[in-house]
Amino acid sequence: MAHSNVPNIETHTSTKHAMLTHLLQWIKKVLTKSSDWLYNIGEKSSKVLRSKQCFLKKLDM
Questions:
Q1: Sign (positive or negative) of CA dihedral 11, 14, 20, 21
Q2: Distance CA 2, CA 9 (A)
Q3: Any idea where the domains of the chain sit in the sequence?
């Protein structure tokens, strides 16, 4: 009986490992997407700020 349990434990750990690997890849993908998204927002907001500053400088003149 004990001998038949060995492959089950092995497949269980490999399944766990596969799930962990999948989860890590998913997390990495999400982090990459969110960092790109944050970068794009930063770029847009800095452009908006620059245009506002230019506009204010024109008003000061």
A1: negative
A2: 11
A3: 36-60
Tokens 């799930």, residue located? 19
Q: Which two tokens stand for residue 32?
A: 């990459």
Query: E strand or H helix at 41, and its extent?
Result: helix 2-60
Which residues of the chain fall short of a pLDDT of 70? 1-10, 61
pLDDT score, position 13: 81
Structure tokens at 61: 């003149």
Residue corresponding to tokens 């890849």: 25
Return the structure tokens found at 42. Answer: 């930063």
Dihedral (Cα; 33, 38, 42, 48), 10-degree rounding: 90
Residue holding tokens 């970068």? 39
Max alpha carbon distance in the chain (Å)? 90
Q: What is the pLDDT of residue 23?
A: 95
